[in-house]
Amino acid sequence: MKLIVQIPCLNEAQTLPATLRDIPRAIPGIDVVEVLVIDDGSRDGTAEVARRHGVEHVVRFPQRKGLASAFAAGIDACLALGADVIVNTDGDNQYDGADIPKLIAPLVAGEADIVIGDREVRDLAHMSATRKRLQWLGSWVVRQVSDTKVPDTTSGFRAYTREAAMRMTIISEFTYTLESIIQAGKRRMAIVHVPIRSNPGTRPSRLFSNVWTYIKASAATIIRVYAMYEPLKVFGLIGLVVFGGGIAVSLRFVYFYLVGEGLGHVQSLILAAVLLIVGFQIGLIGLMADVISGNRKMLEDLIYRVRRMELRQNGAAGGPPPGPDRS
Known about the structure:
Elements: E1 2-9, H1 16-21, E2 32-40, H2 46-52, E3 57-61, H3 67-80, E4 85-88, H4 100-108, E5 114-118, H5 129-146, E6 158-161, H6 162-166, H7 177-186, E7 191-195, H8 211-229, H9 231-258, H10 266-317
């Protein structure tokens, strides 16, 4: 069984060596352990540092594309390299690499498709109380929309089986953490979580400039992904609320009409008509979006089949073909 540890990096030349040192190279149940660094357009020589420290594979972007793109490129590269298990961790040494055996144990035992490392945020001394509360709230929202029980949905320390990785399609340009959990939940994958250790932060986050920026981007990601997988629920509920408002205003007009004051409330009739029409149109949008969602599911299945074919071809040829930015 082959394990590849992928590390998305942006200017991590200082912290990457410590991250690499913590990665165990001998794990029970694993025959081969390799490391893949995805250099997201770094300007501090991160790729060169990775090679000097024995990293087997490096994928480098000429310019920054973002964490989600780096993660997705890493998954594609790991699959092309024949990984049976993929572990994702951060290049800033936030997560303790010695916990990798614990993280992948449920996958090796065949008990899960995805394992999320739980930092047990409530007990972290180096995280502020405000961030703890926001993290708890965000994780609660993701659990509701994804039908999962992951306590730490923003954790980047996670492991995937080959099958789970092949089923993953990331479209967000912000972060992969929330989208991948919602996707996995909607596809009824087996997701478990294990407690892990985390190190104090070595630098401010490069993903967002402040907490409110992160909240807005995360909320937009959650709504967008949920609407993609449950469009009829989202638009149907909105349409029902608007249509119901139109019914309520209509009943108000009928009441005043029956008591002889209808001429003084014509504006209510106009508002009711607008609300009824808009509510009906939103419902139709939900139906159309549901059809589009069905087509998306077929496209995702097609991507999965293409990945399986590429995996077989690469295995038959003895490995993936070299790319211009891969070494």
